Amino acid sequence: MSILNNVDTFPAALALCLFLIYYLGNLFVKLGQPRVMGEIAVGLILGPSFLGLFFNDLFVSLFNSHTITNMNFLKELGLILLMFCSGYELRHLNPQKYLKICLIGVLMGIGLPAIFGFLLFNFIDISSLIGIVGSIEKLKFILILSMAVTSIPVISRILMDLDLLKTSFSKMVLSIALVEDLILYTFLNALLSAKDVNVNLDVGVSMLAHLFVSAGFLLIVIFFREKIYNIAEKFTFGMKLEAYQYLILVLALLFSIVFLASLGGIVSMLSALGCGMILGSGSSLKIIEMSEVIRKFSFSIFIPMYFVMVGFKINLAQDFSLYWLLIILATSSFFKILGGFLAGKFSCFSNLKSIILGITLNARGGPGIVIATAALETNIINSVLFTTLIFTALLTSSFAGVVLKKFRTTIQNDM
Hints:
The chain is mostly helical. It contains 19 helices and no strands.
């Protein structure tokens, strides 16, 4: 592989990633699975799980430090744009319309996994899963967040592919997922922000302080997003600009909000989510068009590269544990599905409808992957738990897709 030693391998690595993203993504879609599974599979193939294991010389030469640095840059952009697009997609949801089922769903969907997860992890020795700077308390917090999270992007994509997105069932499910994820991202931001505080400061006090900051940020976005948008439109978007200039302004606003929010202890994923919600509240056709442009090119390269790098971090030969996968997959799915089922029954749903609700809300997808990746990169968890949480997110999303496809007619007719 000496031919690669004196050349810039980043273009070759990126081209290889994009080709595989296209073909494997389409393959998984044809198999009825979320595209994100194909994107993570690309990372598994090109990473230490396959290429590094069987063709190590090629792996080391192709993915040298310079290439990895550039790919990590694309990954960071991908995370910001993923959260921006997720926030922008929330503009169609109206939780107030399904207030009763939302309240019950959030109480059961978060409360049940949190309570029983906390009790369960007191009886299971999880100390082997702690990262370099982690602690038992932070580890439990990550596990509980991972058990309770629901994937709006994956569920939306599955429902869209099955032509179910406009049904009342879909709007109800996504409304519950919206409220759940906003709460969980608030707690995640508090946990990640608290990592830099003085080690002598009590973790609970630190998290509580950051929790107020995170909650305050989201409340400002939720209740004042239209006013914030109007101010931005007045000073920027109100000008007569070319289409590409609107695109520049939207991106400038996004990265400005992410930077300014970071000064106040808000991590990029939460601030980008808020920015998407702000722009999603506007009615300007130009901004809507530019937001759609951003969404399309984000999902064409940056967001897929984020998920590729997630798969790239996994080393199946060293970090895969069937023991932990079975424990976490079984317990998290049981309590999450049970929470959704009970929420359905309290709302007078049939047994079948309640079970479908629980299985759908059990899909962790992108948010589950984001939580696992953020926890690994801040050294709260180790690579074994990271691999376990990634596979849990993929398997729960895949199962939700299979169930929704099987009961598609039932959902269309009876719900």
